[in-house]
Design a protein that fits this description.
It is built from 21 helices and 18 strands. By secondary structure, the chain is of the alpha+beta class. The strands form 5 sheets. It has a 6-stranded mixed sheet, sandwiched between helices. This is DAK2 domain-containing protein.
């Protein structure tokens, strides 16, 4: 649907831009994944960009939802800061981390511009004009470079700098600035194979840069109301064009002369690139960075065998975490992590950071974060168990016959499911996984047959969408509609890979269906429930999804819930205790079962930060 053109940039423009970007990345995701060859050919750049933008868009929608009950609307600063924060906490991979920093840089300028316009008595609303948008694009490109210790040209950093350079030569209205930035980025993207040998040999443009061009195309549509015109196969096409091709109007570089503009832009960008600690960043690879090497030019030069130095090999683990820490601690962390490995990107600010690094000693990388502050949402991926690090051959293992993929609400359960052989997707409180994450998990399981356990009633449609997508790839998928992690535990307990697939699914479905589930949580606000009115801070006991008990004490409420569940019988009680539950609650409930219910066993697990204080299952 055509958008209403705007000569200024306000909160609604931010919302529209995020929505259009998400839609455009959804269309281009598979193409971007397919051309992802540098620095790790793991085919996930498009997916990571989509998931990062999805988190940003969700945060912006939440801000607008908060204003629905009143007549006021969010300010530009509100929307821009929400976009940046959502991208930061939801950033995936190198490409997503750098995109989060680009959005953060823009948000800083847009928020300042919005506050200035709101303070101006002649202005009717909080908004930014063309010069403000131009400055935001420049801040975005510069801040992304500052987050990288060893910037590499021919990547998303080059494309971002080219967009900012082109915007500086544009007029003073938002439409002109956005179009200039988009065209400058397209031209720079077409030139990336000439700057990076691995792209040239693969015959593709940079995947991260391709994603940024898509996002800037959505920006054009948001402010002009007109969708950008892309060539078949997307802005970049499936391969890089030669000089003759890129000179024509149908080539990926657009009009004649674009390649020359890109070369000049790349030269200016290279000249402004910071290096190492001097840029204030901490190196990276991924779209915009490269494995550790002493100087950028040397890293880009090909050796006598025609290979880039960045392809010689690299660390075994990818480590990602959010970090709460002050600026001084993060500065020390950058130095330490840069010495431990490569592909280091540290983005964020104001006490919250997103850290990404490739290392051989994953424990040391996490310990460095602990010394700097409070790391959480820690993810560690072994390249040997997924996709190869640059220079390492792709593993040639055959697909397994069957695997289980499960969504779990806490780190403790992730470990439990993992020990049972399942591939897990972590669902954090308030951040349910997207279908793209489930698709990636199914692919990561590397099996011909997959049993999918959503473990949440609200994720059933998301899981169904993911199942349909991977079925189109030839993977046989069965979705068991588990509504709680304790039902998933019951299903996993009877999983038998040597059975016929259909029989295994039937047995797992029956076990999940025979398990009643409950959870104990704290009410966030006053509300009507099926058990009456609850106040903020009340302890709620939910049985099979409905509020059954309202209390003031966690242990007493949990005991009442358990008694009600066991009134209809049961053979096994499963307790999953969260980090914030009282330390004695599990022991109290175990004693209750032992003393009051004969022949009923109890199993206790630690769930970590799982949202609910306690999960209860009765089989």
């Amino acid at each position: 649907m055509a958008q209403v053109p705007q000569t200024f940039f306000d909160a609604l423009a931010v919302r529209t831009w995020c929505s259009l970007s998400l839609r455009a990345l959804g269309r281009a995701r598979e193409e971007i994944d397919a051309i992802n060859v540098y620095p790790v050919a793991d085919g996930d750049t498009g997916t990571n960009l989509y998931l990062t933008l999805e988190s940003a868009a969700t945060a912006v929608e939440a801000v607008f939802a908060g204003y629905e009950t009143g007549r006021a609307e969010p300010s530009l600063g509100d929307a821009a800061r929400a976009m940046a924060h959502g991208a930061l906490i939801g950033a995936r991979g190198n490409s997503g981390t750098i995109l989060a920093q680009l959005l953060r840089g823009m948000a800083q300028v847009l928020a300042e511009a919005g506050e200035c316009s709101a303070a101006d008595e002649s202005s009717a609303a909080s908004r930014a004009d063309g010069p403000g948008l131009r400055l935001a694009l420049r801040r975005a490109a510069d801040s992304a470079r500052q987050a990288v210790a060893h910037p590499v040209e021919g990547t998303v950093l080059t494309v971002a700098s080219a967009a900012a350079d082109a915007a500086e030569e544009a007029g003073d209205d938002c439409r002109t600035v956005a179009r200039a930035a988009y065209e400058g980025a397209r031209a720079a993207l077409a030139a990336t194979p000439d700057q990076l040998g691995v792209l040239r040999r693969a015959g593709v443009v940079d995947a991260g840069g391709r994603g940024l061009v898509t996002v800037l195309g959505a920006l054009v549509e948001a402010v002009t109301g007109e969708a950008v015109r892309e060539t078949a196969g997307g802005v970049s096409g499936a391969r890089s064009a030669g000089p003759a091709e890129s000179a024509g109007p149908a080539g990926p570089a657009g009009p004649a002369g674009a390649a020359g503009h890109a070369a000049g832009t790349a030269g200016r960008s290279a000249g402004s690139a910071g290096h190492g600690a001097g840029g204030g960043g901490a190196g990276a690879t991924g779209d915009g960075t490269e494995p550790a090497c002493p100087t950028e030019p040397a890293c880009q030069d090909e050796d006598e065998d025609g290979g880039d130095r960045g392809e010689a090999g690299g660390p075994a683990f990818e480590v990602i975490y959010l970090l709460e820490a002050d600026d001084a601690a993060v500065a020390r962390l950058r130095v330490r992590l840069d010495a431990l490995g490569d592909s280091l990107v540290v983005v964020g600010g104001d006490g919250l950071w997103n850290v990404h690094v490739h290392v051989d000693d994953a424990g040391a990388a996490v310990e460095a974060g602990v010394e700097a502050g409070r790391p959480y949402r820690i993810r560690i991926t072994h390249f040997g168990h997924g996709e190869p690090h640059p220079g390492r051959e792709r593993p040639s293992r055959a697909p397994a016959q069957r695997a289980v993929v499960a969504v779990v609400p806490g780190e403790g359960l992730a470990g439990l499911y993992g020990e049972a052989g399942a591939t897990t997707v972590l669902a954090r409180p308030g951040e349910p996984p997207a279908s793209g994450e489930l698709v990636q998990a199914v692919r990561r399981a590397h099996a011909r047959e997959v049993v999918l356990l959503p473990n949440d009633a609200e994720l059933r449609h998301t899981a169904a969408a993911a199942a349909e997508q991977v079925r189109a790839e030839g993977i046989r998928v069965a979705l068991i509609p588990t509504r709680s992690a304790v039902q998933g535990i019951a299903a996993l307990a009877v999983h038998e890979p040597r059975r016929r697939f259909d029989e295994d699914v039937v047995q797992m479905t029956a076990a999940a269906g025979a398990t009643r589930y409950a959870e104990v949580v704290v009410a966030e606000r006053r509300s009507w429930t099926t058990a009456g009115i609850c106040q903020a801070g009340d302890v709620l006991g939910l049985i099979d999804g409905d509020v059954a008990v309202i209390g003031t004490d966690v242990t007493a409420t949990a005991r009442t819930v358990l008694d009600r569940m066991l009134q209809s019988g049961g053979e096994l009680v499963t307790l999953v205790v969260g980090d914030e539950a009282p330390e004695t609650v599990a022991a109290h409930l175990e004693a209750r079962v032992r003393e009051s219910y004969l022949a009923v066993d109890t199993m206790v697990y630690h769930g970590g930060r799982q949202g609910a204080l306690l999960l209860i299952g009765v089989e």
